Predict the structure.
Amino acid sequence: MPALDHVLTALSDPTRRAIVERLSRGPARVTTVAEPFDMSLVAVSKHVRVLERAGLVRRARRGREHTLTLDARPLRRVAQWTWRYEQFWNARLDRLEGLFSKKGRRS
Amino acid sequence: MKASDLTVSRTIGGTPEAVYDAWLDRDGPGSLFFGSKRVILNLEVGGLFYLLVDHEGREWAHYGRFDRLERGKTLEHTWMSEPTQGLESVVTATFAPVDGGTEVTLHHANVPDTGLGRGHKEGWAGCLDELAKRVEGATA
């Protein structure tokens, strides 16, 4: 499972969210995905690579044709309350840790 | 209702007793309660607590009951809030001496495993909207 930071970073961009939304309707070729955007195929491919690194998009190659498929699993995890609680408890442990590292420096 | 659990842990540079005390020191910055808008606390076995937390532009109430208060060892309390949907989730914190201090392990059990976007008619669209708002809010 890719780090959730990668997932959130990947989704922080409107173009990449639009790509994810397009792929939520079914697999598509890179060229088809790129069509609605006013940018080069190279620029769209860069966005797709960020989504691949986040584990949100998978690429299947058949000859020169690349087909993209959405993998919603990382997204699902981000949307779960268990994950939100993980953030909640980690934030509190960060503060506890910070308190003790300050104490350590003083003594 | 499908329920799930999660575990987070951290090694903190202090004795188990000191770390335990800091975690429960209601006014201290390392505390479980710190930063809450309102705290009502009866720190004893069978005692209840109430926390009002500001998060994402609204207030979230949390209620619980202390079941174990073993200084420097184990803290266990229930945890009920809007996301637990009426289920009494259970938080168990253990404090174990290790090299370099104390390993704190938080185990949160019986958390309803409901995705925000699950069952949404528009597939993931609703979930994405929610995410987008969160991510944009976090980076704004």
About this structure: The CA atoms of residues 22 and 33 of chain A lie 7 Å apart.
